[in-house]
Amino acid sequence: MIEPGHIAIVHLTGRLVDGPAAGAVFETTDVDVALEEGIYHDTRDFKPLEFRVGEGHVLPGLDEAVLGMADGETKTVVLEPESAYGTVDESAIVTVPREELEARSETTAEVGELVESETGEIGWIVDVSDETVTINFNHELAGERVEFEIKILETHATETGHDVEPADGVGAS
Protein backbone atom coordinates (compact mmCIF):
# COMPACT_ATOMS: atom_id res chain seq x y z
CA MET A 1 0.00 0.00 0.00
CA ILE A 2 1.36 3.35 -1.05
CA GLU A 3 2.11 5.82 1.72
CA PRO A 4 3.57 9.34 1.71
CA GLY A 5 7.28 9.20 0.88
CA HIS A 6 7.00 6.03 -1.24
CA ILE A 7 8.14 6.04 -4.85
CA ALA A 8 5.24 5.32 -7.22
CA ILE A 9 5.78 4.27 -10.83
CA VAL A 10 2.54 4.66 -12.77
CA HIS A 11 0.97 4.79 -16.17
CA LEU A 12 -1.71 7.45 -16.38
CA THR A 13 -4.14 8.80 -18.92
CA GLY A 14 -5.84 12.18 -18.51
CA ARG A 15 -9.16 13.01 -20.14
CA LEU A 16 -11.35 16.09 -20.22
CA VAL A 17 -14.58 15.69 -18.22
CA ASP A 18 -16.85 18.51 -19.39
CA GLY A 19 -17.79 20.37 -22.55
CA PRO A 20 -17.78 19.38 -26.19
CA ALA A 21 -14.37 17.70 -25.87
CA ALA A 22 -15.42 15.51 -22.91
CA GLY A 23 -13.58 12.19 -23.03
CA ALA A 24 -10.71 13.54 -25.14
CA VAL A 25 -7.27 12.42 -23.98
CA PHE A 26 -4.94 15.35 -23.22
CA GLU A 27 -2.16 13.40 -21.48
CA THR A 28 -0.85 9.85 -21.31
CA THR A 29 2.34 8.10 -20.35
CA ASP A 30 1.35 4.97 -22.30
CA VAL A 31 2.52 4.85 -25.94
CA ASP A 32 -0.27 2.39 -26.85
CA VAL A 33 -2.93 4.82 -25.58
CA ALA A 34 -1.23 7.69 -27.43
CA LEU A 35 -1.34 5.71 -30.68
CA GLU A 36 -4.98 4.61 -30.16
CA GLU A 37 -6.09 8.17 -29.37
CA GLY A 38 -4.15 9.80 -32.20
CA ILE A 39 -2.02 11.96 -29.90
CA TYR A 40 1.30 10.20 -30.45
CA HIS A 41 4.29 12.48 -31.15
CA ASP A 42 7.67 10.98 -31.98
CA THR A 43 9.37 13.86 -30.14
CA ARG A 44 7.76 12.77 -26.87
CA ASP A 45 9.14 10.00 -24.68
CA PHE A 46 6.10 8.00 -23.52
CA LYS A 47 7.22 6.23 -20.37
CA PRO A 48 5.84 5.57 -16.90
CA LEU A 49 5.76 8.49 -14.50
CA GLU A 50 7.91 8.03 -11.40
CA PHE A 51 7.43 10.28 -8.38
CA ARG A 52 7.81 10.41 -4.60
CA VAL A 53 4.30 10.54 -3.16
CA GLY A 54 3.38 13.60 -1.14
CA GLU A 55 6.27 15.83 -2.22
CA GLY A 56 4.36 17.91 -4.79
CA HIS A 57 6.04 16.51 -7.91
CA VAL A 58 2.62 15.87 -9.49
CA LEU A 59 -0.84 17.41 -9.36
CA PRO A 60 -2.23 17.40 -5.79
CA GLY A 61 -5.14 15.17 -6.81
CA LEU A 62 -2.78 12.55 -8.25
CA ASP A 63 -0.65 12.56 -5.11
CA GLU A 64 -3.79 11.94 -3.06
CA ALA A 65 -5.30 9.37 -5.46
CA VAL A 66 -2.38 6.92 -5.29
CA LEU A 67 -2.39 6.75 -1.47
CA GLY A 68 -3.41 3.26 -0.39
CA MET A 69 -3.10 1.76 -3.88
CA ALA A 70 -1.05 -1.40 -4.52
CA ASP A 71 1.09 -2.71 -7.38
CA GLY A 72 -1.07 -3.68 -10.37
CA GLU A 73 -4.10 -1.71 -9.16
CA THR A 74 -5.94 0.66 -11.52
CA LYS A 75 -8.13 3.54 -10.41
CA THR A 76 -10.00 6.31 -12.22
CA VAL A 77 -10.46 9.62 -10.43
CA VAL A 78 -12.10 12.92 -11.37
CA LEU A 79 -10.16 15.93 -10.13
CA GLU A 80 -11.75 19.30 -9.47
CA PRO A 81 -9.74 22.30 -10.75
CA GLU A 82 -8.29 23.00 -7.29
CA SER A 83 -6.69 19.51 -7.25
CA ALA A 84 -5.63 19.62 -10.89
CA TYR A 85 -4.47 22.63 -12.91
CA GLY A 86 -5.99 25.29 -10.70
CA THR A 87 -8.87 27.70 -11.04
CA VAL A 88 -8.93 30.50 -13.58
CA ASP A 89 -7.06 33.52 -12.22
CA GLU A 90 -8.74 36.54 -13.83
CA SER A 91 -5.65 38.66 -13.09
CA ALA A 92 -3.67 36.33 -15.41
CA ILE A 93 -5.84 37.45 -18.36
CA VAL A 94 -4.47 40.78 -19.54
CA THR A 95 -5.27 43.25 -22.29
CA VAL A 96 -2.39 45.17 -23.85
CA PRO A 97 -2.10 47.69 -26.68
CA ARG A 98 -1.88 45.80 -29.97
CA GLU A 99 0.75 48.13 -31.40
CA GLU A 100 3.00 47.61 -28.37
CA LEU A 101 2.72 43.81 -28.48
CA GLU A 102 3.32 43.59 -32.22
CA ALA A 103 6.35 45.91 -32.02
CA ARG A 104 7.87 43.91 -29.16
CA SER A 105 7.24 40.48 -30.70
CA GLU A 106 7.78 41.53 -34.33
CA THR A 107 4.68 39.59 -35.40
CA THR A 108 1.02 40.16 -36.22
CA ALA A 109 -1.28 39.34 -33.28
CA GLU A 110 -3.65 36.43 -34.04
CA VAL A 111 -6.01 34.46 -31.79
CA GLY A 112 -4.35 31.24 -30.64
CA GLU A 113 -0.77 32.48 -31.01
CA LEU A 114 1.58 31.96 -28.07
CA VAL A 115 3.33 34.98 -26.59
CA GLU A 116 5.92 35.43 -23.88
CA SER A 117 5.67 38.10 -21.21
CA GLU A 118 8.59 40.26 -20.18
CA THR A 119 8.94 37.99 -17.11
CA GLY A 120 9.07 34.80 -19.22
CA GLU A 121 5.51 33.56 -18.73
CA ILE A 122 3.85 31.94 -21.73
CA GLY A 123 0.27 32.80 -22.62
CA TRP A 124 -1.94 32.61 -25.65
CA ILE A 125 -3.86 35.32 -27.46
CA VAL A 126 -7.61 34.93 -26.90
CA ASP A 127 -8.91 38.13 -28.50
CA VAL A 128 -7.63 40.72 -30.97
CA SER A 129 -9.20 44.08 -31.87
CA ASP A 130 -7.83 46.97 -33.87
CA GLU A 131 -6.49 48.57 -30.69
CA THR A 132 -5.91 45.78 -28.12
CA VAL A 133 -4.86 42.16 -27.64
CA THR A 134 -6.12 39.97 -24.78
CA ILE A 135 -3.71 37.29 -23.53
CA ASN A 136 -4.47 34.43 -21.13
CA PHE A 137 -1.52 33.36 -18.95
CA ASN A 138 -3.46 30.67 -17.03
CA HIS A 139 -2.63 26.99 -17.57
CA GLU A 140 -4.66 25.85 -20.58
CA LEU A 141 -6.62 23.44 -18.32
CA ALA A 142 -7.20 25.94 -15.49
CA GLY A 143 -10.81 25.77 -14.33
CA GLU A 144 -11.36 22.34 -15.91
CA ARG A 145 -12.39 19.13 -14.20
CA VAL A 146 -10.18 16.32 -15.45
CA GLU A 147 -10.24 12.54 -15.15
CA PHE A 148 -7.13 10.40 -14.70
CA GLU A 149 -6.90 6.66 -15.05
CA ILE A 150 -3.96 5.61 -12.90
CA LYS A 151 -2.31 2.17 -13.03
CA ILE A 152 0.31 1.40 -10.40
CA LEU A 153 3.15 -0.45 -12.12
CA GLU A 154 5.37 -0.69 -9.06
CA THR A 155 6.08 1.00 -5.76
CA HIS A 156 9.12 1.31 -3.54
CA ALA A 157 9.34 2.40 0.06
CA THR A 158 12.92 3.58 -0.53
CA GLU A 159 15.08 5.17 -3.22
CA THR A 160 15.07 3.66 -6.72
CA GLY A 161 18.27 5.33 -7.87
CA HIS A 162 16.43 7.39 -10.50
CA ASP A 163 16.04 11.14 -10.46
CA VAL A 164 12.43 12.09 -9.78
CA GLU A 165 11.21 15.06 -11.83
CA PRO A 166 7.74 16.36 -12.71
CA ALA A 167 6.40 15.05 -16.02
CA ASP A 168 5.32 17.43 -18.77
CA GLY A 169 1.73 18.45 -18.26
CA VAL A 170 1.16 16.65 -14.99
CA GLY A 171 3.71 18.23 -12.69
CA ALA A 172 2.76 20.67 -10.01
CA SER A 173 2.47 24.19 -11.35
UniProtKB/TrEMBL annotation:
GO BP annotations listed: protein refolding
Residues of the PPIase FKBP-type domain: 5-97
Main localisation: cytoplasm
Listed InterPro entries: PPIase_dom_sf (IPR046357), PPIase_FKBP_dom (IPR001179)
Keyword set includes Phosphoprotein: no
EC class: isomerase
Catalytically driven reaction(s): [protein]-peptidylproline (omega=180) = [protein]-peptidylproline (omega=0)
Location within or outside the cell: Cytoplasm
GO CC entries: cytoplasm
Keyword Metal-binding applies: no
Molecular-function annotations in GO: peptidyl-prolyl cis-trans isomerase activity
EC number: 5.2.1.8
Keywords: Chaperone, Cytoplasm, Isomerase, Rotamase
Assigned protein family: Belongs to the FKBP-type PPIase family.
Full protein name: Peptidyl-prolyl cis-trans isomerase
Protein species of origin: Natrinema hispanicum
